[in-house]
Amino acid sequence: MKIRLQRGASVAPLKNRPLFKRILQEVLQGMGFALAEPGILQFILLSEKEMTALNALHLGHQGVTDVITYDLRNPDLQFPGEDEPVLAEIYLCPAVAVKNAELYGQSPSRELFLYAVHGLLHLQGEDDCDDNARVSMRAAENRIMQAMEERLHNVDFF
User: Using one digit for the tens of pLDDT, what is the confidence trace for 23-62?
Assistant: First the structure.
């Protein structure tokens, strides 16, 4: 499985992009994803404006959000010109990460990475649509983030 990291035109590129992708690979492996599976896992960084539009268009929600996950693991779904199917698209909003990092007392890089983990957990069937599901999702997020704490310590993706 390949990881592709893209961004909207108005989003600055991440610093140390290769490290972001390497840590994601480690998380995927730890979560039990079949890394040898053919396909592409896309992480797409969007501006607040772009994320707000996506949130409204596809989820019917008002305002900006931090992460939106689309599970596309359908063997019949392949985009024209792609050698391998896109397995999932996970949209992340770095601007929200910067704002929330201050609110939660952590680095923007760690907050952004948490959004990526959240998206991956959705691919594994976790949800956060009610209180019980939210508790399970938060426990899984915390477990993964604690396991990656040393790798994420003092990392700056912004």
Answer: 999 999 999 998 888 889 999 999 999 999 999 998 889 9
CATH superfamily assigned to domain 2-152: Metalloproteases ("zincins"), catalytic domain (3.40.390.30)
Write the DSSP string, the chain: -EEEEEE-TTSPPPTTHHHHHHHHHHHHHHHT--TTSSSEEEEEE--HHHHHHHIIIII---S--SEEEEE---TT---TT-SS-EEEEEEE-HHHHHHHHHHHTS-HHHHHHHHHHHHHHHHTT---SSHHHHHHHHHHHHHHHHHTHHHHTT----
Domain residue limits, the chain: 2-152
Q: What is the pLDDT of residues 94-108, one digit of tens each?
A: 999 999 999 999 999
- 54, amino acid identity: L
